[in-house]
Amino acid sequence: MITKLQDAFVHYADSLADSELGTLDVDLRLIQESLKEDIGR
Length: 41
Fold this sequence. Notes:
Blueprint: H1 2-40
C-alpha cells in the first residue's frame, strides 16, 4: 500500500513539475522578446 501511495505521489509531483516548466519556458521567451525589443531601441 505504501509503495502505491508513493508511486502516485511521485507521478503527481512529476505532473506538476512538467506544467510549471512549461509555464517557465513561456515566461522566459516573453522576457527574451521584451529584452530584444528594448535593446533594439
